[in-house]
Amino acid sequence: MISRFFYPLPLPAAGEIQLPEALAHHAARVLRLRDGDPVILFDGTGGEMPAVLRLRGKLCFAELHERSEVERESPLRLVLVQALASGDKMDWIVQKAVELGVAAVVPVQAERSVLRLAGERAAKRVEHWQQVAVSACEQSGRNRVPVVAPICGLRDYLARPCEGVRLTLDPTATQRLLDAGRPAGEVHLLIGPEGGWSDDELAACRSAGCSGMGLGPRVLRTETAGLAAVAALQAVWGDF
């Protein structure tokens, strides 16, 4: 496979560009690419640009070819609203959700979230998750990078307008995915933390117009539930 790299600035239409230090290090030192190897660059605005790697000493350049407008985005705009999970679970969730095609990730602080983040620690963690999303796009072939939103409280999220429907995973819900019709707009999928949503949180979700949805008779872990639901939604309404 040809290596793909996210270029953090708008790509010019043609010519040669110098790759940023971190990108150059990854290409030449980590992946051990050689002078003349083909690569693909994308800047997150859509489309991608085939290029040829040019190594000059410690510097790394890319000789740009004609831009390709290929897109690999799902026709279903999915937003994963994920309650904070402990350990490295959030890394896993963000990575796999981006691979599966979500358009955005909104981390929320829930009452039962084991992980507690605020201030500078929260900002640094979101920055890290955004880079996880970038890497997942490089691997999966996506040319538009989903945004990982700043961490917010559940009720703060619910107070925002939503141009579509909100679905809350609830093991007690009787509605199945196939019971719901295809939404006209985007789908926001709310996933609770390790201990699940509290009764007050579920009540707040219902008051905000969220529809409860189950995933069969089994109770899934937080790092499994969202990804399973995203895959199911992609199969029913997306591009699977």
Describe the structure.
Belongs to the RNA methyltransferase RsmE family. InterPro entries: Alpha/beta_knot_MTases, PUA-like_sf, RsmE, RsmE_MTase_dom, RsmE_PUA-like, tRNA_m1G_MTases_N. GO terms for molecular function: rRNA (uridine-N3-)-methyltransferase activity. This is Ribosomal RNA small subunit methyltransferase E. Its EC number is 2.1.1.193. The chain has helices spanning 21-30, 89-100, 119-140, 154-158, 199-207, 222-237; strands spanning 3-6, 15-18, 38-42, 49-56, 59-64, 78-83, 104-109, 147-148, 152-153, 164-169, 186-191, 211-213. The protein is built from six helices and twelve strands. A hairpin with a 2-residue loop joins strand 4 and strand 5 (59-64). The strands form two sheets. Strands 6, 7, 8, 9, 10, 11 and 12 form a seven-stranded parallel sheet that branches. A five-stranded mixed sheet has the order 1-3-4-5-2. It is elongated and about 60 Å long. The model has no long low-confidence stretch (mean pLDDT 93). It is an alpha/beta fold. The longest helix has 22 residues, at 119-140. It folds into two domains: 3-64, Hypothetical PUA domain-like, domain 1 (Ribosomal Protein L25, Chain P), CATH 2.40.240; 78-237, Alpha/beta knot. The two termini are 22 Å apart.
